[in-house]
Amino acid sequence: MRLHACLVPCACLAAALVACRRAPEPEEQQQQAQAPVTIAPAEPGRLLPPEQFDAITNPLDRSRAMFAEAAKVMLHPRCTNCHPAGDTPLQGDDARIHDPPVVRGPADEGVPGLLCTSCHQDANLELARVPGAPKWHLAPIEMAWVGLTPAALCEQIKDPQRNGGKTLAQIVEHSAHDELVAWGWEPGHGRAPAPGTQAQFGALMAAWVADGAACPVAEGP
């Protein structure tokens, strides 16, 4: 009888041990499902399209990845040269101080007698090596991009106080169709264009917003 009585608790103990071994399986499966997805980088000068990020199943993670891709455009010299942190525009692929010397002025369009449009016309002047596009001007100082990380840039772009008062929908429209933005891919005179195309950039920004407009994780100190 003693042996028989012992079989019941022993059997329960064995079942409990089996249950303990099997309990982590759903958690392990969840961890496997949330494992980071590695996306092969685009070739130099190109952008990955939004569908390239479909393997990232979490919408916010996918949104972060797409913004990081789009940031390659915004942090390229074709964009940052006109989004300086000071009152002087930059030029060239090496972000040199504008020559001749100019300043942004009260309306970000230069000063009387030396407005941006005094030299920069609505199209590139190839013989004079002067770039041009409609509405040529500097971005407001609160929209400075020079020196920002993708994470900081994302937070700035989402802040109406630092993005020109735009909604996310207006930012997408500006990215995809603005004529001055378009110049970044047709800069003229041997200047390196921004990566990809404006259509691809606009598609990335639209997909970023559609998936939650999440920002990349800030880099540590």
Strand composition percent? under 5%
Derived structural class: mainly alpha
Number of strands: 4
Q: What's the tally of helices?
A: 8
How are helices and strands ordered from N to C?
A: HHHHEEEEHHHH
Strand order of the largest sheet: 1-2
Globally, the shape reads globular
In whole angstroms, the N-to-C terminal distance is 69 Å
Largest β sheet strand count, sense and barrel closure: 2 strands, antiparallel
Low-confidence stretches: 1-24, 27-33
Indicate the percent of residues in helices. Answer: 25-40%
**What's the mean pLDDT score?**
88
Radius of gyration: 27 Å
Describe the fold and architecture:
By secondary structure, this protein is mainly α. The chain contains 8 helices and 4 strands, in the order ααααββββαααα. Strand 3 and strand 4 (114-115) form a beta hairpin. Helix 3 runs antiparallel to helix 8 (198-210). It starts with a helix and ends in an 11-residue tail after the last helix. Residues 1-24 and 27-33 have low confidence and may be disordered.
Describe the secondary-structure layout:
Blueprint: H1 2-22, H2 24-33, H3 59-74, H4 77-80, E1 90-91, E2 96-97, E3 110-111, E4 114-115, H5 150-157, H6 168-177, H7 179-182, H8 198-210
Antiparallel strand pairs: 1-2, 3-4
Helix pairs in contact: 3-8, 6-8
